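I'll show a sample.
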Amino acid sequence: MGDLTTIDSEKRIFYYLGDTSSGTTLLGLNMKDGSVACQGVVPLREIVYVGIAQSIDYDMENDNLVISGLAEGNTTGHSVLRTSGCVEGSTNIGKLEHVGIFGDGTFAPMLHASAIDSKQQRLFVTLAITKEQDAVGVIDLNGKQPMFTIPADSFQHTLLGMQYDTKTESIVGVLPINEAPGGIALQSLKLDGTTPTWKSMTLPTQDYDWLYGNSGTVSALNIEDGQLYVLAGKHPQQPSKGPPKMPEMHLVCIDLLKEKVVETPLVSGLPFGVDSLLEMNYV
């Protein structure tokens, strides 16, 4: 659960955190042929499901991976680790280095997504600070400042999925609008120190506004062209008997400057059926 993939575009390695009999496992795939370039166990545990309480991001500034989660045997907080990932001449991952600990492992579990600001060395994660309230956690990867949180005190101040836009120096994401007539909300958050500036707007009406990918958590950002990609379909129709049929999945491209959906190609059946595309990155 969550967005547990990242890409090293220079080395052309696709990384993801998975679950094996050995525990949480980092796997690197060669993007040229799909072969396994490296793999190794990461000493992080999960909360019930794969992905809950974990994150992975590629730090372009330091050319390494930033991974976070609950350390084995540690119930007091989330550990942040770094690794070089795949090392030339070896199928093992590079040495794991401990960066620090943030949050509370019991009461502030990480939820679905993360984003990294490599330039300022900030890691953003979504947290549950209580049973009823989410928040965005901001972690200083240099260890100079403690983590601070920005509580979701309203719908307009909420992010689940997130991507960091280096052009606008803000986090962007989408939320489903559950109240009639429905739709998709485009959310953004920019920080001046610890002071947040939010922007929330409803995208113009279009056919595909029922979000897949953990309510829009699974996303990809084309920074150069200002395009955010999410997965969505038409609202399921409730039959007279039985559960609703899942709608066909579309790749929804949102133009961040025009603040509207510009492309909606069908992706169902590529290659495993309606739920075919569940993780994505922009290269």
In short: Helices lie at 213-216. The chain has two domains: 1-114, 169-283.
